[in-house]
Amino acid sequence: ASLMENFDRDSEIVVDSKRGYGDLPLVVLTATVPQPFPDGTPDAVRNDGPSFMAAFSRGHDEIAALSSRGVNRPVPGAGHYIQVQQPRVVIEAIQAVIAQARELIDVAP
User: Fold this and answer.
1) Which of 6, 64, 73, 90 has the smallest CB count inside 10 Å?
2) ∠ at Cα 66 (63, 72), nearest 5°?
3) What is the tens place of the pLDDT at every residue in 68-79?
């Protein structure tokens, strides 16, 4: 219930245009497999999972947009625990961010 009650407010805190990241390398990984809602989630929300997932993805787009280098990468077949379900994708995202950061400061690998 808390998740749903605070979703909009929490999103506003995270996706705050005053937090602009300039050209900071940023990769946001987004689950594509819905996570089961916790016990106590209202039926109206529980029955509207696709809308929730779409809002979640839009929020990740907004987070990625805080950086001119930001990207939101949906991860096929992954739920909330992307690092467990698709660890290679996480490793690749980290490597991409490191490579871009090195380009910014002109450091050899």
Assistant:
1) 6
2) 45
3) 999 999 999 999
In this prediction the pTM is 0.77
What is the CA angle 73-76-9, rounded to 5? 55
> Considering only CA atoms, which of 11, 24, 28, 17 is closest in space to residue 71?
28
Cα separation, 57 vs 46, in Å, equals: 17
Amino acid letter, 91: I
Beta bridge pairs of residue 26: 70
Tokens 């992954």 correspond to 78
Q: Taking the CA atoms of 56, 48, 7 and 39 in sequence, report the sign of the dihedral they define.
A: negative
Look at the chain and count its residues.
Answer: 109
In whole angstroms, what is the distance from residue 93 CA to residue 35 CA?
22
pLDDT in tens, 18-70: 777 889 999 999 999 887 777 777 776 667 777 778 887 888 998 999 999 99
